[in-house]
Amino acid sequence: MNTLHFKYAVEVERTRSITQAAENLFMAQPNLSKAIKELEDTLGITIFERTPKGVIPTPKGAEFLGYAKNVLEQIDRMEQLYIPENTERQCFRISIPRGSYISHAFTRFVAELDANKEIDSNVQETNSMQTIVNVAEGQFDLGIIRYQTDYENYFLDYLAEKKLQSEPIWEFEYLALMSRQHPLASAEKVRYEELSQYIEIVHGDTVIPYLPANRIQRSEAKKRIYVYERCSQFDMLSHIPKTYMWVSPIPDSFLTLYGLVQRKCHAANHKYKDLLICPKGYTFTPLDKKFIDQLYASKNEVAFRQYD
Question: Sheet of 243-247: strands edge to edge?
Fold first, then answer.
């Protein structure tokens, strides 16, 4: 049995897509499909089935994938025992939300790395559920998750299920982000009823553990554009003055660069919390601690700013 096929199957489960898994694995889709079929023939079971929600494991497939992940984890640990330690290599891996103060901290952290030594730094911006999976499966050492405080118990239960520990970073209220040219940018007071008439930009992959999509609280705005990375949101906010977005407080450098402003605007269910997560028993490396220092410094810069 080829354990490389285990890796293929785990990636298909993670992405719920043969096409995306093949792209992530740098292989052709037909070759990946063939490898999965060979694995199923060897095991005598069907590992995946196609559904409207993507490619998902069958009950027998889910059982197999649990064993496969354990095997891959043990192989990885065994290999690490015999890889000579390279004290010159600067390795750091983190999965984060699309939060500008966090991205700002990461940029500052990387700027402080020793350019004369090897650098292996990996950051992924994604939603909180994917971050939890990334850290639980060992793809990333650290993660930062963001959730509405109303859903805190769901996330804490899911972290416990995945054997992850957490540390609170910050609890805050979302602010309205808009162009300086937005009709409400210079209003004496921004009212939610007025703001919701404009075009809201929303991250389109919000997922809550244990909750179906129809039970997740949604914005009341009738005009929405869904995006999946920060560059798109900043570009649209800058060039389409009647758009806005709900975000955490943003560093001044981003506001200046894109010609944006942030305004207070009271809305229900807009309190959020950011948590730093890692596996239980994980020991922070010196590089981890340097990043965390930058994270709190970046957070403090925006946390104490005055907003209209």
Answer: 224-227, 199-203, 243-247, 175-179, 260-263
Q: Which one, of 196, 213, 65, lies nearest residue 137 by Cα?
A: 65
What token pair was written down for 122? Answer: 């990996």
Residue 234: what pLDDT?
92
Average pLDDT, the chain: 89
To the nearest 10 degrees (0 to 180), the angle between helices 128-136 and 152-161 is 20
pLDDT tens digits, one per residue of 115-124? 999 899 999 9
What are the percentages of helix, strand and coil residues in the chain, rounded to 5? Answer: 45, 25, 35
Instruction: Quickly count helices (H) and strands (E) in the chain.
Output: 11, 12
Write the CB contacts of 156 (distance below 8 Å, at least 6 apart in sequence).
166
What Cα–Cα distance (Å) separates residue 67 from each residue in 12, 43, 64, 235, 250? 15, 13, 5, 44, 43
Sheet architecture: strand order including 118-125: 118-125, 89-96, 142-148, 271-279, 164-173
pTM (two decimals): 0.73
Q: What is the pLDDT of residues 160-170, one digit of tens each?
A: 999 999 999 99
CA distances from 204 to 3, 111, 147, 201, 273 (A): 35, 31, 14, 9, 19
Count of residues in the chain: 308
Mean pLDDT over 117-136 rounds to 92
Distances in Å between the alpha carbon of 281 and those of 66, 164, 286?
21, 9, 16
Residues 6+ apart with CB under 8 A from 59: none
Residue 177: strand pairing partners: 245, 262
